[in-house]
Amino acid sequence: MNGAVYPPPTGPAANPFGNMPGYESMAGGGFMPPPMPLQPLAPPQPGPNADQWTIPSLSEDAAREAFKNFASSHCCYSGSPADDGVITSMEPFNTYRYRLETFTETRKTEPAEKPYEGETADFYTQPAPRPWDVQVNPPSLFTNHTEEVRVPFTSSVKECGSCHGAGTTKCDDCKGEKHKECYMCHGSGEQNNERCTTCDASGRKRCSTCDARGTKDCSTCKGRKKLLTYINLKVEWTNNMADHVVQQNSGLIVNLQDVSGKELIKNNQNLLYPLIGFPEPSIAEASERLIKDHQTKYAQSARILQQRQTVELIPITKVNYKWKGGFHLYFVYGNEHKVSADNYPATCCCVIM
Fold this sequence. Notes:
Structural class: mainly beta
Shape: flat
């Protein structure tokens, strides 16, 4: 950044900041292109050890307890199948979930103004920092957050154009007349052929909106007569997430995003390499595809601050049970032991009053 000082403007312009490096095309506001992206710094990550691939086994007691909790959470479900049903078999299934998180930062600038409250007008005192040079404290990694910052050395003071520096504008309710038509007699001074007591037969009432002043504080400058104009920098941090779940043939049809599993792999860095050597080929393929997609998609409009990839083994157990001579099944899935039982055999119609 050089030490040049920019000359003051000779008159108002649509974009008074147009001659400042980094803000030339800001007349309508817009996203600022990020700096050039980094390259991955670490070598590819190895897959998990073989002893990590084992699904945690689910005991019959845990399966039965999960089923009881499921039944009790539904007001229309009888607890009998869960209490009296006899488990005949339990079958576990391997299900992997790959998750990629790309934590990005975008910056958008726009001309802004606010009521002047005595702030220092520092426009042209020295060159303003470029949009990506403004110091802003980021939140914790992989956390969505938005921050707005007044760009240093862009502030100036001007007369409020809405009230022409008066600090007040005509009251909208009384049109500046301080009084308005009586709402009871509609300006006639009479109500039911008698003297209107609400307005003392005058047909008009003091305007309560402006307290009979005929004016109100200007809504733009809040009565301060002047405005502070500056460049507003909006910084947005976003955790962009994509999942890939390996298809399994258990018959369970639910969204697994709401459950957790056994964590096999977790690593993060500025830019990731795809996984290699994972025993499930579709996980390695998903890692390569999603990392490429994210780096292509987000590097053009945002700064990639960090990426994180996680592989979880999500336990799913198919439980077959017998109740009242019939055979039924349910699923217990995730570390949370959630239950899915689409054809629960004992339901009733409930009416909530």
